[in-house]
Amino acid sequence: MNKKLTVGTVLIHIFFILFSLSFLIPFILIISASFTQEDALVANGYALWPSEFSLESYQYVFSNPDRLINSYKVTIFYSVVATFLSMIVMMLMAYPLSRPNYRYRRGVTFFIFFTMLFSGGLIPSYILITKYLHLGNTVWVYILPYLANAFHIIVIRTFFQGLPDSLIESAKIDGAGELKILFSIIMPLSKPVIATISLLTLLARWNDWNTALIYIRDTSLYSLQYLLQEILRNVEFIEEMAQSSPVAGGLIDTSNIPSETIRFAMCIVAAGPMLIIFPFFQKYFAKGLTVGAVKG
Amino acid sequence: MLKGDSMSVLQKQEKRDVAKRASKRKAFRENAELSVLLIPGILYFLIFCYLPMIGIIVAFKDYRNNLGVFGSKWTGLKNFEFFFTSQDAVRIFRNTIGYGIAFIILGLVCAVIVALLLYEVRSRNCLKFYQTTMILPHFLSWVIVGYITYILLEPNMGVINKILGIFGIEGLQWYSEPKYWIFILPIVNIWKTVGLNCIMYYAALMGVDKELFEAATLDGAGRFKQVIYISLPMLVPLMITLTILHVGNVIRGDFGLFYTIPRDIGLLYPTTDIIDTYVYRGLRTGDDIGITAAVGLFQSVVGFVMVVGTNLIVKKINPEQSLF
Asked: Is the minimum CB–CB distance between B321 and chain A shorter than 8 Å?
């Protein structure tokens, strides 16, 4: 019996090691590609280790970083502002809905919940945002349309409901207003749910690429992810970037630009920092967000 | 005496009324105070969720941008008629629904299997390592996943063709053959989503009372039997909840997956074009906005009916497990 058990355990570990490799190898491939010399890459293909080590691609990226820095600025700005604003809006909304005595609780909850089930779709939203609200091609289009999320409000509300009622009652006797109760009593007790939801919101905003695809024309307003998308899709985009770089030294021959490796160097520089940071907050993503919380 | 008595009754009544009114006023004030907090959120949902629902009337109009939503001419069901008689309709519905169903089933099976296996892992360090790696794709945008699939599938330099080359097999033209994508898209989707889903099922398994397993061991049930008779049944509620949540997605494809991974290559549309990519292209080209909106409306209505319907069926069978 004991022997059989170890065989089973070994097999499970082998499975998980292969499974883990399938998630790690892609990153190694990208990193390796960014450090490979262009001609060697074209000749030998992508590999786990650079066939010929080179920093050329990074020289191009860092000698002309305006676009990248710009996209970083735009992305950091809207991600932080959007996360902050939407946390405030969502908590303000979740608090009354968590109060058993609040008269319009059921009506408002349904009003929110319905948006999870039905939506107008892309076309009406597009017409509304560009033609009537004039948000197209502004940084606000990254923020306002994503200000609240029905599911997140319900998760926050459910967490608030779990807090003892007596806290609120005694604060009321002391004459505290609802806003004060929310911010000085409820909020400090709700750190876990606030952390989880703000990280989810931040991640969604940071990884947003389709807003720019649909609403942004101005290259100086590109989000990081959309900049990466353009770099992957258009060789011209890289060539244009590289040509204005001092490394090229006014070189007109675009065939000399290491466009393949530049792509991956850009990918590392643009996506790397967050990829290193986010897994540290892993536990917040897995915990606290049990779907059962929706019910009620 | 009698008079005095009735007086006191009246007074009492009045007193009670005053108290009632006061408590009513207090209740109203409390409700009002709470209602004020809702204003920003309500405004958001009205503007960005409910206004577009009204805007869906463009599906019944010949939309002209200069005339606006309300100025454009009504055309009745012409937009729907035009779309449903076109060849695109068959293709995008087949793809959307086909992948939708495949993703739900495969996603469920893979996540549950991995979670059950993970539950057998005892070493804390190994557990942490496996969990961390499998959740990594959850932090990636579809754009980055697009870079990864490009590295793997690029016909001349791509890893997969290089590996095939080692075995003397000629490289395949991944980006120009639609038939491969029936497999590529589900694999990529599972790769990205399995980690988080698995961890949710794993969390549910952790909640199972350990004594159940101990009792089963005493009764002589092996690990496999325990999985079948204890672990799996314990996961059923979560499976149902997640499936209800996902069932609306049968008709709503993940735009990021279907747009960035096949790189919007026209040659691949037969197996990669779904409603969402079709609607996006309609928007990009700008003509036939009405038709595109009609497709979007149809999608929303079907998605709505499916979620509500599934929930209703689950409610009939077991009210405890329904979502709402």
From this structure: no
A97, A200: one domain? yes
Provide the domain limits for residue A33.
Answer: 1-54
CA dist A229 and A225 (Å) reads 6
CB contact A42 to B (< 8 Å): yes
Q: Looking at this predicted complex, what is its ipTM?
A: 0.89
Q: What is the pTM of this model?
A: 0.88
**In Å, how far is B225's CA from the nearest CA of chain A?**
14
Task: Compute the nearest-CA separation of B8 from chain A (Å).
Answer: 32
Q: CA of A170: how far to CAs of A104, A159, A181, B104, B310, in Å?
A: 23, 20, 10, 48, 44
Q: Which residue of A30, A102, A287 is in closest CB contact with B31?
A: A102
Q: Are residues A45 and A92 in the same domain?
A: no
Same domain flag for A45 and A86: no
Q: What is the pLDDT of residues A31-58, one digit of tens each?
A: 999 999 988 888 888 989 898 898 988 9
Question: What gap in Å lies between CA A125 and CA A123, rounded to an integer?
Answer: 5
pLDDT tens by residue, B77-132 = 999 999 999 888 999 999 999 999 999 999 999 999 999 999 999 899 999 899 98
Chosen for mutation from A23, A178, A209, A277 (greatest number of chain B CBs closer than 10 Å) is: A23
The answer to whether residue A4 neighbours chain B at the CB level (below 8 Å) is: no
Give the H/E segment covering residue B187: helix B181-206
